[in-house]
Design goal:
Elements (H helix, E strand, L loop, with lengths): L9 H8 L1 H6 L12 H7 L15 E15 L5 E8 L4 E6 L1 H6 L3 H4 L2 E11 L3 E11 H13 L1
Parallel strand pairs: 3-5
Antiparallel strand pairs: 1-2, 1-4, 2-3, 4-5
Length: about 150
């Protein structure tokens, strides 16, 4: 029987924790949303990876790259829209109903970079989602932010 010794060197441990370095032969690039970090920090965006720790009905802002968008039937005759946003720390599930859906209609499929304000909602079916009250195009917010900072 062959016994394999545990990794002990710092280099060996780093190689085990970051196998993409060997596969890609370079350091992995930061998540694209990180280039917007100064704006996101200034408006109080919560990383998706921290949402589960928040209580139900907490007001939050989340941002990310839209990875999915689908319409779903709701309890009323109107349809709901569910969007998943990836920010590098996880994915946030966003639900748009009623006025939030109407006011941001062009953004659902027209942009991939989004900022969403809403409240956390816990359920047995979906775990945790954010019920959107307002949606913005992140690229447009960034343009205004950089113009204001340059002035």
């Amino acid at each position: 029987m062959k016994v394999i010794a545990p990794l002990t060197s710092a280099r060996a441990q780093d190689e085990q924790q970051h196998p993409e370095h060997d596969t890609l032969e370079h350091e992995p690039a930061p998540h694209p949303i990180e280039s917007y970090r100064p704006l996101l920090d200034s408006i109080g965006v919560t990383p998706s990876g921290e949402l589960l720790a928040l209580p139900d009905n907490t007001e939050v802002m989340v941002a990310g790259i839209r990875v999915t968008a689908q319409t779903l039937p709701s309890h009323s005759s109107k349809r709901a829209l569910r969007v998943a946003l990836d920010d590098g720390s996880g994915c946030a599930e966003i639900t748009l109903l009623g006025q939030a859906q109407k006011s941001s209609d062009s953004l659902h499929f027209g942009t991939r970079l989004m900022v969403v304000a809403g409240t956390t909602h816990r359920s047995k079916e979906t775990g945790l989602s954010v019920r959107a009250t307002k949606v913005w195009d992140l690229a447009q917010l960034w343009s205004g932010f950089t113009t204001q900072r340059g002035a």
